[in-house]
Amino acid sequence: MLYRAIGGGMAGVSAISLGSWNTFSRLDVAQCARLLKQAADRGVNFFDIGYYWDKPDTEQAFAQSIRSAGLSRDDYLLALKLWLWNYPEESFEQQARASLQRLGVDHVDLVMVSRPTPGIDFAAFCDEIDALVQSGLARGWGATNWEAAQVERAKSLLAGRSQPRLVQLQYNVARRDIVEGPDYERLFANRSPALCAAFVLEGGILAGHLDRDRVNPSDFARGERPAERNIARDAGGIREQIRARQARLSAIAAQFDATAAQLAIAFTLANPATATALIGVTQPRDLDEDLDALRLLEYRAQWLPLVEEVRVAGVAHPRLFDPVKHE
């Protein structure tokens, strides 16, 4: 396994990380424990967790499973999502402490903070993030789906204090324009912060699960259920084009004795800005397949030009999400 530095005195993160929405909560404790133990045995040391609107037991499921897997808190790094659904009435400290209690730990390594809403007191917002680090509840922090200018402003406001270590963005072989655009290219120039690539398989579509799509909270509340699993909204309205290009991705991957999923993961890791690619597999065989994507980096010069055919124009940042308002 490759490990990549994210600064701040933290240990390097594994090039492939595991977790996020619709991962741990889709398994029973025994299944999840086997998956976590297998991941750790293969060198994965970074897990992403959070409280999710349709899977409110995710943190408890992870906590039970990680203990059952026999992993101690020193064996892994933990990233915790912080949301703005009830902010500022519910402070970041209140939200973090509630999550830590459900997780049964006294700290996380990173809090991953959602993009600030328009009109927010940005300086106070950054101060509150920094206070989590100063208190020891988190060892560091990162940003989820922030604009590059917001990250730059936070770095300036927090000069001499806790700096963002990761920026988690939707980034895959089709959705490229945000991460590879000039604003983030400047931000990532010295890997401070580094990129956590999320949505690397477009919710599984790039791996061939073409029927997967989004079920919004309002539709979910009325009883609609997703095919296989729920996935993120289609920012920019480009998903049909991505589906249409999946067969071509598979064909290119076959030239290198690889699967479409492996090539898609390797693509995100070929970007020098990437510290880790976040995957959400639940099956042991799929985990092994995805981790074996690392071997393709040796041949990146051969396949990188070919996957330009899979790139789709019109990529957008995800809209701010509020499940309380069913948006």
Tell me about this structure.
The protein has one domain (3-315): TIM Barrel (Alpha-Beta Barrel). 34% of the residues lie in helices and 15% in strands. The chain is built from eleven helices and ten strands. It has helices spanning 29-41, 58-68, 92-103, 122-135, 148-157, 182-187, 217-221, 239-254, 260-270, 284-291, 300-303; strands at residues 3-4, 13-14, 16-19, 46-49, 77-82, 108-114, 138-144, 164-170, 194-198, 274-279. An eight-stranded parallel barrel has the order 3-4-5-6-7-8-9-10, surrounded by five helices. The protein has a two-stranded antiparallel ribbon with strand order 1-2. Helix 1 (29-41) packs across helix 2 (58-68). The mean pLDDT is 93.
Topology at a glance:
Elements lengths: L2 E2 L8 E2 L1 E4 L9 H13 L4 E4 L8 H11 L8 E6 L9 H12 L4 E7 L7 H14 L2 E7 L3 H10 L6 E7 L11 H6 L6 E5 L18 H5 L17 H16 L5 H11 L3 E6 L4 H8 L8 H4 L24
List keywords for this structure.
15% strand; 8-stranded parallel barrel; TIM Barrel; 327 residues; 10 strands; 11 helices
Q: Please count the beta strands (DSSP E, at least 2 residues each).
A: 10
Count of individual domains: 1
Share in helix: 25-40%
Major sheet details: 8 strands, parallel, barrel
Question: What is the terminal separation in angstroms?
Answer: 39 Å
Overall pLDDT metric: 93
State the order of secondary-structure elements, H for helix, E for strand.
EEEHEHEHEHEHEHEHHHEHH
User: Which geometry do the CA atoms define?
Assistant: globular
